[in-house]
Specification:
The chain is of the alpha+beta class. The chain contains 3 helices and 17 strands. It is elongated and about 70 Å long.
């Protein structure tokens, strides 16, 4: 790969790597035709620039991109030694990278140009399927509560997990219905995989009455800017759950 899209923790994601030049060009042209916004991130920085693909020129091996409205961002993009790009196409995440960004003109106006990437990552929709976590030996997430909620690190069992987030059970109703609230510094201990540290944002809340008439609350949480290395842990754990489920279905578990 020309420039590292991922941290080293994602080397196992080669299963999602597209190497066919024809397919890469087709995907990039579809992104352009559907006017999908693309996040540009300078390697080693946190500042993100949003752009779009103006043209994919296969003959000249180039992808023409819209410039940022921020002149300083454009200068840093041009000086960078690596840029990562992230977008989506039909709800499938697309990731690629470039070692260099150049200035050019498109239809008489200034634009940016990169070489057509040699590879890109395409994360199929199934990678976002939620997998139910074990009930007998539940996975738990430790959430540091703010002072207004007691200020302690509190454990909550997971109901399911995906690459986009988790669902947790709040049977003591400690988190309230804080839709949209971020909880930084959360830690999920994934068995045989490792610790995932993430910021969680509460996206939805569902109250359920159990058979014993007790109330339980299921909170849907989204990962916020999850680092690539942490995302690799999540994917590895989901793959493990899928294998175990398939083995049980085949009568081998």
């Amino acid at each position: 790969m020309q420039a590292h899209i991922m941290d080293s923790g994602l080397e196992n994601w080669h299963d999602f790597e597209v190497e066919s030049r024809r397919e890469i060009i087709a995907l990039l042209r579809s992104i352009s035709e559907k006017n999908q916004l693309i996040r540009m991130l300078i390697h080693g920085e946190s500042d993100v620039c949003v752009t779009s693909i103006l043209e994919v020129d296969a003959e000249h091996d180039s992808v023409i991109l819209d410039r940022s409205v921020n002149a300083d961002q454009n200068r840093r993009m041009l000086a960078a030694k690596g840029i990562s790009f992230e977008t989506s196409l039909d709800k499938i995440r697309i990731l690629f990278a470039s070692a260099q960004v150049e200035e050019c003109h498109y239809s008489g106006t200034p634009a940016l140009k990169i070489a057509i990437p040699e590879t890109l990552i395409r994360l199929q929709r199934r990678e976002y399927y939620r997998m139910t976590t074990p009930v007998s030996n539940p996975v738990r997430v430790s959430i540091p509560l703010p002072p207004s909620l007691g200020g302690a690190d509190t454990l909550f069992p997971l109901a399911d997990i995906s690459c986009g987030g988790i669902a947790i059970l709040d049977n003591k109703l400690m988190l309230g219905e804080t839709i949209g609230r971020d909880y930084p510094g959360c830690r999920i201990d994934l068995p045989d995989v490792g610790i995932v540290t993430a910021t969680l944002q509460i996206r939805n809340s569902l109250d359920m009455t159990l058979l014993n008439n007790k109330l339980n609350r299921r909170l849907g949480c989204q990962f916020v800017d999850l680092p690539r290395s942490m995302l690799a842990h999540v994917q590895r754990y989901i793959t493990r759950l899928e294998r175990e489920r398939n083995a049980r279905m085949a009568g081998l578990g």
